[in-house]
Amino acid sequence: MLMHPVLLLDGWQIALYVVMILVALFSVIALLLIIWLILQVLFLVRQVRSEIRPLMEQAQQTVRTVQGTTEFVSSGLVKPAIQTASIAAGVMRTISVLRSGVIHPRDRTAARDTMVKREEYVVHPDGPTVAREEYVVRPGGGTRERSKSGR
Known about the structure:
This protein has 151 residues and is mostly helical. Helices cover 66% and strands 12% of the residues.
């Protein structure tokens, strides 16, 4: 008598075959899901690339614009402002020196009344000396003339 092959198997073997079929079925489903996920990632990468290119071009254009603006501001505003400030500082320093009493532009005796005071200092007993010169207006020189002229 011929029996069907399934009937020859005991309960554990049937359960083992059913579990193996289910695992194979889940493996195929998992493989299909992984393939679908990879395709979605590829689509997302293409879409991001197509959107990033215009953003990168716009960022590069903005950087170029900022560079041009800084060059313009530097050459057109900052450099002239620095030059003007330096000229103004020089003029103010010149005026302050002229008003300090050392040199009076209208006083012709200022050069005659100005003397050079020279001092030498010994830095070390065996070392060299250091010289210092100072321009000093002689006391009383030229003050009489200034008071006479009404200043």
